[in-house]
Design brief:
- The complex is a heterodimer of chains A (about 120) and B (about 110).
- Chain A contains no helices and 11 strands.
- With about 120 residues, chain A is an all-beta fold.
- In chain A, the strands form 2 sheets. In chain A, strands 2, 4, 5, 6, 9, 10 and 11 form a 7-stranded mixed sheet that branches.
- Chain B is mostly beta strands and about 110 residues long.
- Chain B is built from no helices and 11 strands.
- In chain B, a hairpin with a 7-residue loop joins strand 9 and strand 10.
- The termini of chain B are far apart.
- Classes of the chains: A mainly beta (about 120), B mainly beta (about 110).
- The interface between A and B is medium-sized, with 27 and 26 residues.
Amino acid sequence: GAVVSQHPSWVICKSGTSVKIECRSLDFQATTMFWYRQFPKQSLMLMATSNEGSKATYEQGVEKDKFLINHASLTLSTLTVTSAHPEDSSFYICSVSTSAGGLPGGYTFGSGTRLTVV
Amino acid sequence: KQEVTQIPAALSVPEGENLVLNCSFTDSAIYNLQWFRQDPGKGLTSLLLIQSSQREQTSGRLNASLDKSSGRSTLYIAASQPGDSATYLCASPANQAGTALIFGKGTTLSVSS
């Protein structure tokens, strides 16, 4: 399957600053990447679908101006949390679907980023 | 839209026991179902992927089954070990292959030595 690298693994930032999280597909050209958020003791919730070369598709309730997604190449998608606040503190994780040619494949996840806003 | 439910939410067993984790889904037109393991504060590790046309998959001490008609999948862990302690998540594509996954809330497993 694909190998997905996510960076940084953890970050602490001050309230009001912005944080960028990178998700790289190392051996698979990913036209689509997914960004999830996981609060403590909760499951993963989809935030947005990142599409290479076009705008991301955001889930209901996710502010697109706050969570900026850029997918400029087939191997890199970035999530920028702008003007972060303590309530944005969470575990953010990206994923790549390895479906190709109409065949349903699995999904590979990055190692996640623990964001703490103080 | 697909909904995924997992029971139990937590499970504690002594080392050596065989155990079953349950996952149910609402849409039987499922493309595939994937089981993951998540250690505390870590990302997800894929355990088993079952395609729609398959009934089960095996990897080592793990066996996952898929019954589309009943909307259920089970993950069987044989001879559990303390190292198996983690949260186990099942997930299925939202509405077609390659779309985002819908996750259950997971089963947190604790295996005591």
